[in-house]
Amino acid sequence: MAPDVMAVVLCAALLHAGWNALVRSSQDTLRDTVLIVAGAGLWALCLLPALPAPAAASLPWLAASVAIHVAYFLLVARAYRHGELALAYPLMRGSAPLMTAMAASALLGETLPPGGWIATLLIAAGILLLGLDARRRGHAAPGVLRTALCNGGVVALYTLVDGQGVRLSGSAFAYTGWMFVGTAVLLGIVLWRLRRPALPALLRSGGRRLLLGGAGTLGSYALALWAMTRAPVALVAALRETSVVFGLLIATCVLKEPVTRVRVAAILTVAAGAVALRLAPA
């Protein structure tokens, strides 16, 4: 993986951890998840006139991506309603790289070198260790583990779908923009149906999250999809999961969650995986 591609993916990881922390700190995770996605959709609408339309061959993949992302964001809101960032986030992100790598090999014909597989396994092991440590210390509410792991499968699915779609689209940024516009519309309908009487008040109180979270969400995924046009999908997906390290720092410094030796060991494992990934040939 080239250094510039690696830097872009790490930037995407930081942005991703940031918007997840916004959702976790919310008193209403469904509202703020929808607001963040709506913000991403609004930012995308501002940028799309300057971008080419996605190629027709990518449109079926784009439609599938919108549907998958609706499920993903609803599961994110559900996981953070009862689970800590230090538990739900590592489990959602940590279970995805292995699923993505195996599916990319079976479905897309991508063959990772031995170093790539070692890196993927190290990153996944470190991230999962973070989640298991939180669960061992009694920070796991009923259903959080199941929801987070289920969403890991959804992450793997949209990674594969978008990895194909963006390569056919001709423009990673246009593909991402239209995906967020479609997802924002569908999630907006969900929120309207569930919270219609209180919707005006909910929207008035969430302007900052809409703008900041939306920009972070859109930027994070656009950068990751661009990287998938320059490197194998499984390697990009694995490196992007280092977002859990940024998430841990945010959880510790901002949300005041404790740091344990197991968490430190997990961070070192993730870092080792990132180094191995850097050394793996594309």
TrEMBL record:
Organism: Methyloversatilis universalis (strain ATCC BAA-1314 / DSM 25237 / JCM 13912 / CCUG 52030 / FAM5)
Molecular-function GO term, any one: transmembrane transporter activity
InterPro entries given in the database record: EamA_dom, EmrE-like, Small_drug/metabolite_transptr
Domain of life: Bacteria
Location (main, coarse): membrane
Name of protein: Transmembrane protein
Organism classification: Bacteria, Pseudomonadati, Pseudomonadota, Betaproteobacteria, Nitrosomonadales
Keywords recorded for this protein, A-Z: Cell inner membrane, Cell membrane, Lipid A biosynthesis, Lipid biosynthesis, Lipid metabolism, Lipopolysaccharide biosynthesis, Membrane, Transmembrane, Transmembrane helix
TM segment ranges: 6-22, 34-53, 59-80, 87-108, 114-132, 144-161, 173-194, 210-228, 234-255, 262-280
GO biological process, one term: lipid A biosynthetic process
EamA domain span: 154-276
